[in-house]
Amino acid sequence: MSGEEEENAAELKIGDEFLKAKCLMNCEVALILDHKYEQLQQMSDDAANQVSQVFEKSLQYVKRFSRYKNPDSVRQVREVLSRYQLAEFELCVLGNLCPETPDEAIAMVPSMKTKGRIDDDEQIEKMLQDLSLIKKFE
Amino acid sequence: MFFHIVLERKIQLHPRYFGPHLRDKLVAKLMKEVEGTCSGRHGFVVAITGVEDIGKGLIREGTGFVTFPVKYQCVVFRPFKGEILEAVVTMVNKMGFFAEAGPVQIFVSNHLIPDDMEYQAGDMPNYTTSDGSVKIQKDCEVRLKIMGTRVDATEIFCIGTIKDDFLGVISDPSAAS
């Protein structure tokens, strides 16, 4: 069990390895796994039997919980969120949960407000509005 | 949370494969050995997306097998304590309910379900508020916070809560349009 320094995603304590790693939103994972599944289908008729249960469950999960379906919107979401000083992990939590108000956003990603990165609710409000615009025009 | 990371593994290959398709055989063996597995450090390896580098093979003394160090990119799912995510309820009983988020199972004890929700037994056991407006039952979607994780040989198991603000049933059916 990990935990010399107590792990806590709410404070962005997720270990150096994952802080620096590329984080993926559910909608991005859906695109990757779909692509891989298609590749497998082209190579053999029996793709369903070749993938692990972990793959199947993950694919079902990300398809069910993707807020954005088409690749262009997915790219736009990442672009919009990247304009703010967010860590990869925080960016993906916001992209996955799509909070509707600044209060909700801060509850989902409490670490956002630390170190003076996002000081006021107006910034958050603008971010959420930009996100919902992408959804509207999807 | 899903991550795209680079991992390394030593893959052993029998001499019968030392031919023109060596690399393909190596990648196939890597996939078979790694996809679907789980470790405490990296979580579940969901899918390998590419091979970055295959180092020089080393012949093992006595057996003739060759070990290749392979660097590969993969998608992993690693839940963190304190992380908030969405999950599907799979089972409800009077101790609480089980939910699944991808390959990970999460248990939410009745102590971490809001006090105004009560367990109702029956064909479709559920937790419901006194006015019946919110119901948690099998196959419904909930947003929960992970309170702790436990790793055993083949999987990661989590404990969660829905007692905080903005957690609980995702009541907007058109959300994932």
In short:
Chain B: Belongs to the eukaryotic RPB7/RPC8 RNA polymerase subunit family. Chain A is an all-alpha fold and 138 residues long. Chain A has helices at 16-19, 26-43, 47-50, 53-64, 71-82, 88-97, 102-108, 121-136, and one strand spanning 22-24.
Reading the helices and strands of chain A in chain order gives HEHHHHHHH
Radius of gyration of chain B: 22 Å
> Helix- and strand-based class of chain A?
mainly alpha
Task: Work out the strand percent of chain A.
Answer: under 5%
- How far apart lie the N and C ends of chain A? 42 Å
Nearest-angstrom radius of gyration of chain A? 17 Å
Question: Which whole number gives the mean pLDDT of chain A?
Answer: 89
Shape designation of chain A: globular
The assigned structural class of chain B equals mainly beta
Pair of chains with the largest interface and how many residues each contributes: A-B, 48 and 42 residues
User: Globular, elongated, flat, extended or rod-shaped: what is the shape of chain B?
Assistant: elongated
The major β-sheet of chain A equals: none
Amino-to-carboxy terminus distance of chain B = 21 Å
The number of helical elements of chain A comes to 8
What's the oligomerization state? Answer: heterodimer
- Beta-strand percent range of chain B: over 45%
Number of strands of chain B: 14
User: Quick check: average pLDDT of chain B?
Assistant: 93
What's the SSE pattern of chain B? EHEEEEEEEEEEEEE
Largest sheet report of chain B: 5 strands, antiparallel
- Catalogue the unreliable spans of chain B: 172-177
Write the layout of secondary structure elements.
The complex is a heterodimer of chains A (138) and B (177).
Chain A: H1 16-19, E1 22-24, H2 26-43, H3 47-50, H4 53-64, H5 71-82, H6 88-97, H7 102-108, H8 121-136
Helix pairs in contact in A: 2-4, 5-6, 5-8
Chain B: E1 2-13, H1 22-34, E2 38-39, E3 43-54, E4 58-59, E5 66-77, E6 84-93, E7 96-101, E8 104-109, E9 117-120, E10 126-129, E11 135-136, E12 141-151, E13 156-161, E14 168-169
Parallel strand pairs in B: 8-13
Antiparallel strand pairs in B: 1-5, 2-3, 3-5, 4-5, 6-7, 6-12, 7-8, 9-10, 10-11, 12-13, 12-14
Subcellular location (chain A): Nucleus
Family (chain A): Belongs to the eukaryotic RPB4 RNA polymerase subunit family.
GO molecular function, one term (chain A): nucleotide binding
